[in-house]
């Protein structure tokens, strides 16, 4: 589960990296009221791993959904909000951080 603020650029781009992936399924959501898809406890319950773009997203999730995060791996990818949807630099950075955190077999 990928989380950013608005679910328009970073987390949605990350989700798209997994379209048609033979082994993994990804979803995305945002933390802000105007998000394209706003994160819920149900999203977090679905996820095996929760990946946020910034520390503040992790803080919001812990505050609002602490119980739903119990036992979940929560990873901060440290990707700033300065990229457009499917920006090639963003996609390269996502691939790099995902391999660092989850292993080379992920992408």
From TrEMBL:
SUPFAM superfamilies: Phosphotyrosine protein phosphatases I (SSF52788). Residues 1-104 form the Phosphotyrosine protein phosphatase I domain. InterPro entries: Ptyr_pPase (IPR023485), Ptyr_pPase_sf (IPR036196), UCP029416_PTP (IPR016919). This is Phosphotyrosine protein phosphatase I domain-containing protein. It comes from Hymenobacter luteus.
């Amino acid at each position: 589960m990928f989380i950013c603020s608005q679910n328009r650029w970073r987390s949605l781009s990350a989700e798209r990296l997994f379209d048609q992936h033979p082994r993994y399924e990804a979803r995305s959501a945002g933390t802000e009221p105007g998000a394209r898809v706003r994160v819920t406890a149900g999203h977090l319950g679905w996820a095996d791993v929760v990946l946020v773009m910034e520390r503040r997203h992790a803080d919001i999730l812990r505050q609002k959904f602490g119980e739903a995060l119990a036992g979940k791996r929560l990873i901060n990818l440290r990707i700033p909000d300065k990229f457009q949807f499917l920006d090639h630099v963003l996609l390269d950075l996502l691939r790099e951080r995902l391999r660092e955190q989850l292993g080379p077999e992920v992408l």
